Amino acid sequence: MKDELEKCFEFILEVEKLKAVQRRVKPLGLDRYENSAEHSWQAALMALVLAKFGNESVNVERVVKMMLVHDIGEIDADDVFFFDETGRLDAKEKELAAMKRIFGILPEEKAAELFALWDEFENGTSTEAKFARAIDRVMPVLQNLYNNKQSWTENGVTKEQILTKTAYIGDGSAILWEMIAAKIEKAFE
Amino acid sequence: MKDELEKCFEFILEVEKLKAVQRRVKPLGLDRYENSAEHSWQAALMALVLAKFGNESVNVERVVKMMLVHDIGEIDADDVFFFDETGRLDAKEKELAAMKRIFGILPEEKAAELFALWDEFENGTSTEAKFARAIDRVMPVLQNLYNNKQSWTENGVTKEQILTKTAYIGDGSAILWEMIAAKIEKAFE
Fold first, then answer.
1. Which residue, of A122, A186, B40, B78, has the greatest Cβ tally within 10 A?
2. B40, B49, B117: which to substitute to probe chain A, counting the most A Cβ within 10 Å?
3. Rounded to an integer, what is the distance from CA A147 to the centroid of its chain?
4. Distances (CA, A) of A31 to A43, A140, B25, B77, B167
């Protein structure tokens, strides 16, 4: 038991590093970039709040757990800007290796559970994975919409890119995508 | 449906402010103080990882949800140092008012659900509340143990204070408290 607990401590101290991974968005009202740890919290909370708007009935607890682990691979792979397609392909392999390394710190059973959650989020086609990916994508869009398009402007992202590349939000929640797409249109008027 | 979604957006943008609430602990390897949003993520993840070490069988999903909401009241009440007893009494009322205000932004049913989670964490005696409080308390203790007692040193906290005031970790997990207490003793040798 104590050996297992020591492994859990080691894991939780290792994931401290996610607090140092910088994203492209600034939290509303703050003059600094967001980190992936605080984003993970907000995305998990958002999943809890928006669960009923999924296209299909979702197991919200599984979605919440996915959100807690979905970015941990960035500790080794770093956050790659969503609109950087080449960078994202490279990052995918690095993230897989990172997940194996970091979850590998945990006792075996727990490592397998968390890896399965991450894998489902990353590669899965389940109702929960689609909903989780929609939430993960909606979060920075909302932040941009209410923060003068900060990261879009800083990175020269066009309305067309946003509408095309984030349309998969609708695979998780059609009504959410309908509202968000209208807000994007309006923001670029 | 759209009205409800707008309320959820407003809520999720309001809780952005938790990213600006500063705690007394610095994340390992970073020269800045931790904020309550990233702490909430790590505490939720830790609950997921340590669930099996609870004194009783816990509903881990409910504990995870408690961790996601447990600090939101700090948006209005601010984080009060754990060892500041007078400050914590004052903060309790402020936090209650804050929770009512902030959850009140949400559609009624969801507001009631999140408020109940917070209330259980704050005032409850359920297995889940005891375990959640143990996790919330263990997190900064671990950070201190592996970061040269940073916040304890900066705030002049003694070993006796720590051992007395954090002993309730054992109400959630006896084995966790046994290990942590030994580590605290060792850190002050």
1. B40
2. B49
3. 19
4. 21, 16, 21, 22, 39
ipTM given for this complex: 0.96
* Phi, psi of A170, rounded to the nearest 5 degrees: -65, -25
Amino acid A36 reads: S
What residues contact residue A137 under an 8 Å CB cut-off, 6+ apart?
A: A82, A166, A168, A169
Nearest CA in chain A to B25: A16
Which among A19, A40, A64 has the least Cβ separation from residue B65? A64
User: What are the E-state strand segments in A119-179?
Assistant: none
Q: Are B23 and B43 in contact (CB under 8 A)?
A: no
Residue of A nearest to B138 (CA): A9
Half-sphere exposure in the Cβ direction for B106 (13 Å, CA): 20
- For residue A20, the 8-state DSSP code is G
Beta carbons within 10 angstroms of residue B115's beta carbon: 18
Q: Map tokens 């399965």 to a residue.
A: A116
Mean pLDDT of A104-128: 96
Determine, for residues B8 and A49 on separate chains, whether the beta-carbon distance falls below 8 Å. Answer: yes
Nearest-neighbour CA in chain A from B143: distance (Å) = 8
Answer whether residue A49 shows pLDDT above 90: yes
Q: How many other C-beta atoms lie within 10 A of the C-beta of residue A15?
A: 23
Residues of chain B with pLDDT under 70: none
Would you say B56 and B134 are in contact if contact means Cβ atoms under 8 Å apart?
A: no
Chain A contact set for B106 (CB, 8 A): 49
What are the pLDDT digits (tens) for A50-86? 999 999 999 999 999 999 999 999 999 888 888 888 8
Q: List CB contacts (< 8 A) between B13 and chain A.
A: 28, 142-143, 146
Q: Could you tell me the sign of the dihedral formed by the alpha carbons of B142, B91, B120, A139, in that order?
A: negative
Residues in A closer than 8 angstroms to B148, CB to CB, are none
CA A97, A119, A174 angle in degrees (round to 5)?
135
Cross-chain CB nearest to A8 (options B1, B6, B50): B50
Residues from chain B contacting residue A44 (CB–CB below 8 Å): 41, 44, 64, 68
Q: Are B135 and B46 in contact (CB under 8 A)?
A: yes
Judged by DSSP in three states, A107 sits in coil
